[in-house]
Write a structure and sequence with these properties.
The protein has 124 residues and is mainly α. The protein has one domain (2-118). The chain has 4 helices and no strands. The two termini are 18 Å apart.
């Protein structure tokens, strides 16, 4: 239960960071590139929060968790970017609404990969 609560808090913080960076750079970049910029900054918030709050009892060493979470986050970003492009270009949703929906939908995948692989818990 506590893991889920922290995951939501950290995830919401990272998502808000992602959206804030997106909003700041969107006037100067293509929306897809602004999404990537938001992801890069939010990655730091997400990793630190998940490692030290959501999955603080992880059985994996810090560097191993970082590498695994990097793969997890990139998989989440790939799903996010694909959904974002479809919502933005096909359904013509406004930038921030498309980004918000894509972030929410990709978060479930990130949780599962984080919980059971990147930050594997101690057993026993």
């Amino acid at each position: 239960m506590r893991t889920g609560l922290w995951f939501l808090v950290v995830g919401a913080s990272a998502a808000l960071t992602h959206m804030a960076v997106f909003a700041l750079v969107a006037p100067y970049l293509l929306p897809e590139l602004a999404n990537a910029a938001g992801f890069c900054v939010a990655f730091v918030v997400s990793f630190a929060g998940h490692r030290f709050l959501s999955f603080q009892d992880a059985d994996t060493p810090l560097w191993q968790s970082f590498k695994r979470f990097g793969v997890t986050a990139l998989a989440g970003f790939a799903a996010n970017e694909a959904m974002f492009v479809v919502l933005l270009r096909v359904f013509e949703l406004p930038n921030l609404l498309a980004l918000f929906i894509a972030l929410v939908l990709a978060s479930a995948q990130t949780f599962v990969l984080s919980r059971f692989w990147a930050f594997r818990r101690k057993h026993g």
